[in-house]
Amino acid sequence: MNTLYSFRRCPYAMRARMALRYSGVAVDIVEVSLKAKPDEMLALSGKGTVPVLNADGRVIDESLDIMRWALAQNDPQDWLLKDDPGAAVQIAPLIEQNDQVFKVHLNRYKYAERYPEQPMEVYRGEGEVFLQRLDELLEGRDYLLASHPSLADVALMPFVRQFAHVDRDWFAQTPYRRLQDWLQRFLDSELFTGVMRK
Fold first, then answer.
1. For an engineered disulfide with 135, which of 29, 40, 64, 179 has Cβ 3.0 to 4.6 Å away?
2. 101 and 44 in a common domain
3. Residue 29: closest CA among 190, 187, 198
4. Three-state DSSP class for residue 140
């Protein structure tokens, strides 16, 4: 049996859960308190971070690897964009920019009091560069790289959601209308509401 150790509000866990749900893989979800991580999770992965997937004895403790594992089991809507190799090669660099660059700006913006070197608006402006790029990618289509969701959309969405929720009024008045609509489509989707249900 597959077991996923997860924390509902963690964006990494969120994207892993969305991929597992989409692929239809049967998985037991153990909701973890980050203040009291279960011993069985720590025994599987010494990193001590969520998500951790025990897939019939194989331990996968990176959210992106969990997503790719799920899609290798079943990818009914072609999230990997195998039908469009030109778009498929853009998936990894986009996720890398999100995980390595945008996430840093997001953390500083969200927890600006921990980074007093700059005002919050400076961190927001640094993150906004990525939002602008995503908005441009959405020109003429509903999703970042295709007319349907891809691995990139789902891997990025929880982080864009978190950025937008730091100051919802600010996000609502930005010129990134396409990105706002893209985010709302995910927030209203059964895929997202299903993984967020207690």
1. 179
2. no
3. 198
4. coil
